Amino acid sequence: MFDLYQSQRAQRRMRNAAMDRGVIAILDVGSTKIACLVLRFDGVDPSGGRDGVGALAGQSRFRVIGAATTRSRGVAFGEIEAMAETERAIRTVVSGAQKMAQVRVDHVIACLSGGRPRSYGLDSQINLTETPISEQDVARALAACDAPDLGEGREVLHAQPVNFAIDHRSGLSDPRGQTGNRLATDMHLLSVDGGVVANLIHCIKRCDLELAGLASSAYAAGIAALVEDEQELGAACIDMGGGATGVSIFLRKHMIYSDSVRIGGDHVTSDISKGLQIAPHQAERIKTFHGGVVATGLDDREMIEIGGETGDWEHDRRQVSRAEVIGVMRPRLEEIFEEVRAKLDAAGFEHLPSQQIVLTGGGSQVPGLEGLASRILGQQIRLGRPLRVQGLPQAATGPAFAAAVGLCLFAAYPQDEWWDFELPAPSTAGRSLRRAVRWFRDNW
Question: Within a domain: residue 162?
Answer without folding.
Answer: yes
